Every structure is written in structure tokens, then in C-alpha cells.
Amino acid sequence: MNEASNNTAGMNASDTEIIAQKRREEYIFHCKYDPLPNANAVISSMTTLDVVFYVILILMTTVIIALFIDEVFYLKAHIKLSYRRRLSILQAGIPPVFAVTSLMGTFFPAGFNMIDFVCSVYFGFGLHAFLVLMVNYYGGLRQLLKRFEGRYVNINTGPFCCCLFCLPSFKMTKKTFSVLWYATFQAALLRPIVLFFQGVFQTDRSLKIPGMLYTGLLVTSMLSGMWALVIFRKASGDFLGRYRVTAKFFNFQMVLLIANLQPFIVTVSYNACSLPLTAYAKKIILNYQITIVEYFFLSLITRFLYRRSSDNEQLERVDTMETTLEENGNSEKATLRAMEDESSSEADNRVDSIV
Predict the structure, then answer these.
(1) pTM, whole model, 2 decimals?
(2) Could you give the dihedral angle defined by the CA atoms of residues 341, 347, 350 and 355, in that order, rounded to the nearest 10 degrees?
(3) Residue-level pLDDT at 321
(4) FRET label pair with 275: which of 107, 199, 236, 283, CA 20 to 30 Å apart?
(5) What SS3 state is found at 314?
(6) Phi and psi (nearest 5°) for 271?
């Protein structure tokens, strides 16, 4: 009897372990391969601590939006140059756009593709707009080229060529500036195109394209745009110091690191799972939660950098000998045209008197 009971107990223990092992394997399978949860599943899985944390995130996002609205009214009232004002508003809009979309991502992790699409497109346009804003600080392209006459610009800068000291410098001409201009413009143009095709092909699944190809194109596009912007920013440090261009640029770089480096760090270092939230869903939600907190502080920095009436100032115009001769030539042409008009009018009067 004792032996039979021991055998039965041993069989029950082994069966219990097998069942437990199957349940663990099933749990791990669901954590890895279950689809991303919808908003109802996210809300139903919240604990009391999660609710408090979400309330804090909502308040932070509301403050970011309020600061942006106040910044818009301030820029409209104090920045008289309309084009510069619009570019500054575009830069100041980066924190609220990222914060609002990230808050949406914490509730709707399944829509992360559309959220990343919106953020990438806005950031691409912001990257190019920052270059255009610096040109506007100069007073236009003609004034920019005049200030760079006889000066050489280094290209051994990050993120590509910071260690390549053998690279030659170049003169800032209209042609070389157009290269920098198109390098930043392609970041605004190429990113939405690549993300659009990625969303279409990954949803359809009939054409299998490796995800590393999309990532490589996006990273190369963004880094090349940043490289052109770094070159122009370093060359402009002597001229645009009053506009705090360096601080504005480093604030822009923080946005780049948060948008591109942080998701990779979260993916590598965090691997928790609590169904119905899969491990992938938890990573997406955690990344968006951290992003809201970071952009709350970045919005304060952005407010400090762009809420300045000194941005309304204009650089002193540079007049070279060529422009002086050109202006004199234009004035002489205008005088000749006026004399011709006078002679023609006198001739007409004589004809009228004869008739």
C-alpha cells in the first residue's frame, strides 16, 4: 500500500511539473507571438499605480501643449518677420507633436507604425526648416555667401567624418550650399516615402522585404541630413552667436537621440511580459512613457531658446565692391531709361503739336 501511494504521489508530482512546464511554454509563446493589444486590453490591465502614472503623463502632455500655445502667441506678438516666425513655430512644435503622439501610443500600441510615421515626417521637415531658419538669420542666401567670401568650411565633423582629418575643406559657394540644402531636404522627403512603403508591404505580407533595409535607409537619410546641418552650424558659429544657434542645435540633437537611439536601448534592455500585454507591447508602451517625460523637459528648454525678442534682430548687411558697382550700374541704367522716356515723351508731344 505504501509503495502504491508513493508511486501515485510521484506520478502526480511529475504530472504537475509537466502541466506547469506546458503552461510556462504556452505563456512564453503568447508573450512572443500574440498580436499587439488594443486600448481596452491596455486599460483593463492597469493597476492603481499605473493609473496614477498615466494621470501624471496626461498632465505633462497638457502642460507641453499649453506652453506651445503660449509660445505661438508670444512669437506672433514679438517676432515681426513673418517667415522667421513661422520657422520658429515649426521648431517649437516638435515637443508637443512628439508628446501627443507618444501619449496616444501608450493607449494604442498597435498603432505605433502610424505614430512613428507622423513623428518622422515632422522631424524631417523640422531638420530642413532649421537650416532654412539659419539662412534667414543671415538675411538670405546672398548675404550668407557674402559673409563666407574667402572662408573655408570643414567637413570632418560628426556623425560621419569626425575622425577623418584628411578631408579637404571647401569654399561656401552657391553650388556647395545647394549640396547642404538638398542633403537636409532629402531627410524630409525620403523618410515619409520609405515609411509609407514599409507600412504597405508589412501589412500586405506578400512581398517580404527585410526590416533592416528600411532601417538602413532611414538611418542613412537622417544621419546624412544631420551631417550637412552640423557642417553648416559649425561654420555659422562666428556669425550667429546672438541667436543661440549652437544651443538650439544641441536641443535638436537630443530629439534625434530620443527618436532613434532610445527605442533600441529599451528593446535590448527590457524584456518583461504580463499578459494581455506582450513583451513587444510592453517595450512600445515603456518607450512612449519615457518619451513624454523627456519631452516635458525639452519643451521647457525649447521655450527658453525660442521665447526671445532678440531673434527679431537682423545682422548687419555686407556690401562688397561688386554689389556697389552693380548698384551704380543699375542706377545709371535707370537714369538712361528715364532720359529715354523723357526724349520719347518730348517727341510724342512734338508729333501731337504738328498734327
Answers:
(1) 0.75
(2) -110
(3) 41
(4) 199
(5) coil
(6) -145, 40
